[in-house]
Amino acid sequence: MLKIKELHASIDSKEILRGVNLDLKPGEVHAIMGPNGSGKSTLASVLIGRDGYDVSGSVTYEGQDLLALSPEERAAAGVFLAFQHPVEIPGVGNMYFMRTALNSLRRQRGQEELDAVDFLDLAQERMKLVEMDQTFMSRSVNEGFSGGEKKRNEILQMAILEPKLAILDETDSGLDIDALRVVASGVNALRSEGRTMLVITHHQRLLDYIVPDFVHVMAAGQIVHSGDKDLALELEANGYAGLTPRDERSAQVGASV
Amino acid sequence: MTPVKVPVRAAGGVLSELASKHDGHDLGWLAEARLNALEWVGKNGFPSRKDEDWKYTALDGILAVPFVAAAAGPGPRVTLDLINKAAIDLGGPRLVFVNGHFSPEFSRVTGLPSGVVVTTLAAVLAASPDRLKPFLGHTPGEHHAFAAFNDVFAEDGAFIHLTNDTVVDEPIQLVFFSDTEGVPLMTSPRSVIIADSGSRATIVETYAGLPEDVYLTNVVTEVVLAENARIDHYKVQNEPVTAFHLALLDVRQARGSRFNSRSVMLGSSVARHEIRVLLEGVEAEVSLDGIYLPQGEQVHDNTIFVDHVATNCTSHQLYKGVLDDRGHGVFNGQIMVRHGADGSDANQKNKNLLLNDRAQVDTRPRLEIYTDDVKCTHGAAVGQMDDEALLYLRTRGLPLESARGLLVYAFVQEMVDRIELEPLRASLAALVSTRFGSGTHRAQP
Q1: Which residues of chain A from 47 to 106 reach within 8 Å of chain B, CB to CB?
Q2: How large is the ipTM?
């Protein structure tokens, strides 16, 4: 469903992604781990179409050239990013925002729009997944939300927009253990055969709750190691320092994906 | 100021015509005041960029047009339908002026409680002109040449008098519609609103006209609030982009009175809305809000002078501008706290959103304080569209244009929400969001 080949990305002539290769199949949950500055968030940014990067290589999503699409076209095609730093938008109500978003997607997909009443029903049902109440919906988007509330709001959007490819960028950052549990259980409830997830995280902790099918390690703009969920535990024990660049371990990487 | 030729044709002729209209009354004072005002303009000329309060707004475009003072008579193309499209009918009393002159066929003055007079300046000039002496008979050139020009040419406008403790629930609507059909007319509406003690009313002024008409609306509205009176004043300026709009809203407030102004600037090639508020009675409160949305080549100037003379008065100003294309906005706000005006509470805020590189805003919040015991703040901000917010919305599926529209609307929504008159708020919300191509956006579903 998502095939990334030799993806390079640079910003201000500084190369951040230096040949990323990944292959995600429907329903799989992949985790990408790696130290700060390894390019994890840049990969997410490039996948959702953030401006400002010089990109080469290819990203094929359900047979389409993903890199040729605008961010909104990618959204309509089913790509979703849970932001590491969700944006506050004063003056735009959360409920209104989500309904507008859902209806934009439905319009682009040729589906009928939901009216306010139908949307409210849907929202109320999905809010339970992340233990949010109505008061969140009448506030402005993310405005004055705590770190945990912002992350729950991201997962709520995912629950409402029902993407096929969900990218979770550092969804655990800034969360205490209770909030992490809520967010993770929301994510787990949204796992399905038709939904692929790419979970980007700095810490192994998140992967205790969202158990991935595959774990990849990113360093210096490349995937340097791939394995199953046990790789995360190994990293937790030995740290990233023990890893060597891909050119020395490429055989193992190729074999494990 | 440099002396200039008065750019209105037949000015003298109009004057003599005005004087002769009111035979039977001693209009010596009025004729004299008009002549004095005209002479003052001739001598002092029009303001230029050398004048502090006109520094950012070029008047060349206005002064280059050979305007003709508008005479009474129905506009050839005006219909009630056009008027209703330009100004939502809120029910209740409604005075419609076409080219600055009262148009009885489009107007409605019914259902008013006793204790309130809603009529026209022309009617008062005809019946009891001396009532207008404090307004039209003042010292020439008190403010500037355009206000003086209004003194010269003002023949009509609204005259509203609320007697003690009269409360008018329904908004009093004043619609100034222009239909100049190829002739560059200058209209000079002059409205007078007198609120006696404890009275209360809402006034809605709308200015509009027909596309492509070139004209100048040079309007003066005077509001006098006695003790504990309250006036809520709304102004919607939606003249065609070929027209010019210069306005002075002059407010005097006695003890404990309250004046709220909400202004929405949409139209005109060059529009300047000047508000002067004199807080001369203790514990008077004034709140001035406005949005200005210049696009294309439009210039929108808000010039404000709040004069704290008495003790314990409060003034608030919040102006927000969205500048698109080569649009140019000006916020020129001054708060003066006079010696002895202890306990003054004044704040002033101006925020601007520039939508592209060619748009421009000049913002100049000013505080002048001559006493110690005051609480005053002011601030200005100029920003651009938040790219991160834009991306966020797009990743949720909103097309670029809708995302931009939503963010712009979110920026001005706070101002729209301050409009307490429900049907007017909805109508302005629609006007504003249409302008940014974004449909209607509400924070609450």
Answers
A1: 48-51, 70-72, 74-76, 79-81, 83, 86-93, 95-102, 104-105
A2: 0.93
